[in-house]
Amino acid sequence: MSLHNLFDNYSENLTFADEDTVITDTGVNYDNIKHMVFNEIGTRKNRRVSKKIIIPLVAIITALAILTTTGYATGSFEEIFGYMFSKGQNNNLSIPDNVKTTSSNSDLVFDVLGITGGNKTEFCVAYKIAKSDGSDFLNNLNEYEISFSEGPNLEISSSLFELNNNDSYSVEQQIFTPDNSTIIIIQALNQTNKAIGQHMDVEFNNLTFKKIDKHLNIYTDNDPYSEEFDATIKDLEKKYDLNKNQIIDLEYDYNKEKYEYCIVTQIKYDVTLSASLDLNYKLSYHKLTPNKKVVTELHNNNKFEIRLDNCILSPFSIKIDGRFEHLDTNNSNISDYIPLGRHGKIIMKNGDSYTIEDNTSGFNSIASDNSKYEYHIYYNIEFPTTEKQPLINIDEVKEIVIGDITLTSN
Amino acid sequence: MDDKKLALKLKKYDEKALEAIMDKYTPLVSTIIYNISSGMLSTADIEETVADVFITLWKNADKVDCDKLKGYICCIAKSKAKNKIRDLSKAETVDISDVIIIDDFRLDKHIESKDTSKLLIEAVNNLGEPDNEIVLRHYYYYQSSTQIAESMRLNNNTVKSRLRRAKEKLKELLLKRGVKYELT
After folding, report:
1. How many CB atoms lie within 10 A of CB B20?
2. Which of A16, A65, A232, B97 is most solvent-facing, going by the fewest CB within 10 Å?
3. Are A381 and A92 in contact, with CB atoms under 8 Å apart?
């Protein structure tokens, strides 16, 4: 071990000299660093939830809204999501197994929408909280912060984000509430190294919603955790005529680089929401035709056509991962995976079709067999990710009902 | 707010505490990474590495000893800086023969080396002024002899010779306490 190594492992605080004596002008931009940090950890400053995670969530909510308004809400979540999601690098969402939820407050309904995220130890569980009578969950208040204390088995990395009841959706707002905010998604990143396949129990306590009612233009250089801060709040509470739901709170002003005192409406729900679920990614594979199997005879035909009819969202891109399952229906066994090659990303909208053509010997050898097969092509769906391009335009999809993505052979 | 209060709030994953810690320690972390990089990292790389330090701190918040927040942050900074240089060297074939590579930062490793750390700081303190400060500036903050000379208003050659003598003395002191290391 070198002397440098010894010092690298030295984790005591040093007091030999003031930090100022060692700090040099490194030219770094502190705002950039702050942005990167809070973007990464998904907290309320800057980007609170990464796009990779929020995009599927937005789609889910939109789908739920469409399903609700079109009377198709009778399907299970799995059926609904089956049309929309498949296994992807980052934006997959699958339905956990054995979901059981309870709410200590009968006014609130708690459910688990699905799991999304990247790997075996870091993933995101999307929860739904709604009023049981379907009424407006947020009481017409905009731009909420939501916070809650977590249960014993969950570490919540993103407990705060803004909601806006009036706008349909934009990336900056991070979340979309389609039916006057009766649904709220809570993104909670599990950091407990739970591997897929394990069981997870989670618990949320004491939901609090906050909305800034009035900026008081009173700024403080004081430490927000100091006793002076508490004293000032008490003074302001006396000065302003607050109703029972209002409090004085602080909001950080990035322009002034100071905390500002604000009057905030705060609604608290003294509730315990519990969920029990098995973390299983197997359902992240969704069939191209999730509700009906396509049985066809190829007979030396080496073409498939994917046609999108009556899709929920349009346009969107579809990425074919280049393989299909080969199920010999005579033997009822999945016998092989046949590579189809990479087809990349294809932008499709309703009515568009795309032909998969492959002349590999493996493909033709199956096609020459007279047996019947089921072909399950796996695919990923991606949504546009640029901020200029709206993720979903609610006006475009309001008349579209849930439909099939059909697979036919030529 | 002092470090202990900040660390307590950080352990509860308080974002404002993390922000306050960043406000306080970003200059120091940037400096350490800048000094270690010796020009091998661009400003953007340094920013990214600094961000990575605080992300790591956040992810390890529950393990932070509230009395050693600054020390932990410095440890993470050094580890991340060297890892960043190592990563870049793989892609760009940078000569890093004089850079010591350590594994990914793990707080438990640092906790395990607590006893060695204690012996080390005792030995450094025994060097006396100004050698102890020169050693810490060089080995802890990765300042060059030129930087140290400027900061402490000493002649550069004086710094180099004092550093050499201090290293030898430090080796002797540590060997007496059973700690072996290479004189680099």
Report:
1. 19
2. B97
3. no
Measure CA B83 to chain center.
13
From CA B20, how far away is CA B1, in angstroms rounded? 9
* Interface contact flag, A226 B55, Cβ < 8 Å: no
**Considering only A212-216, A252-256, A398-402, B63-67, which range has the smallest mean pLDDT?**
A398-402
Number of helices (H), then strands (E), in chain B:
9, 0
Q: Which structure tokens are listed for A212?
A: 């800034």
Residue B51 and residue A36: Cβ atoms within 8 Å?
A: yes
Q: Which chain B residues are Cβ-neighbours of A1 within 8 angstroms?
A: 180-182
In this predicted structure, the answer to whether residue B15 has a pLDDT above a threshold of 80 is yes
CB contact under 8 A, A22 and B3: no
Q: Across B26-119, where does the E strand assignment appear?
A: none
Å between B85 CA and nearest CA of chain A: 16
% of chain B exceeding 90 in pLDDT: 3
Does residue B116 belong to the interface with chain A, where contact is any CB pair within 8 Å?
yes
Where is B76: in which H helix or E strand? helix B69-92
Query: Residue B29: CA atoms inside 13 Å, Cβ hemisphere, count?
Result: 34
Q: What is the pTM of this model?
A: 0.36
Judged by DSSP in three states, B127 sits in: coil
Residue A144 dihedral angles phi and psi, to the nearest 5°: -80, 155
Confidence class for position A269, pLDDT limits 50, 70, 90: confident
DSSP 8-state secondary structure symbol assigned to residue A13: P
d(CA A148, CA A209) in angstroms, rounded, equals 9
B40 CB within 8 Å of a chain A CB: no
Residues 117-156 of B with CB under 8 A from A: 117-118, 120-121, 132-133, 136-137, 139-141, 143, 147, 151
Residue A122's pLDDT band (boundaries 50, 70, 90)? very low
ipTM above 0.85, yes or no: no
What pLDDT shows up at residue A53? 33
Q: Can you say how many angstroms the Cα of residue A391 is from the centroid of all Cα atoms in its chain?
A: 14
Indicate the pLDDT class of residue B50, thresholds 50, 70 and 90: very high
Q: In whole angstroms, what is the distance from residue B124 CA to residue B126 CA?
A: 5
H helix count then E strand count, chain A: 7, 17
Nearest to A26 by CA among B94, B76, B47: B47
CA distance A249 to A266: 10
Q: Tell which wins on pLDDT, A196 or A290.
A: A196
Residue partners of A34: CB distance under 8 A and separation at least 6: A45, A46, B19, B22
Cβ-contact B121, B127 below 8 angstroms:
no
Cβ-count burial of A73 within 10 angstroms (0-12 exposed, 13-18 middle, 19+ buried)?
middle
CB contact under 8 A, B47 and A2: no
How far is the C-alpha of A253 from the C-alpha of A251, rounded, in Å?
6
pLDDT band at A145, cuts 50/70/90? Answer: low
The per-residue pLDDT for range A209-247, each reduced to its tens digit, is 777 788 899 888 766 666 677 788 888 888 998 888 888
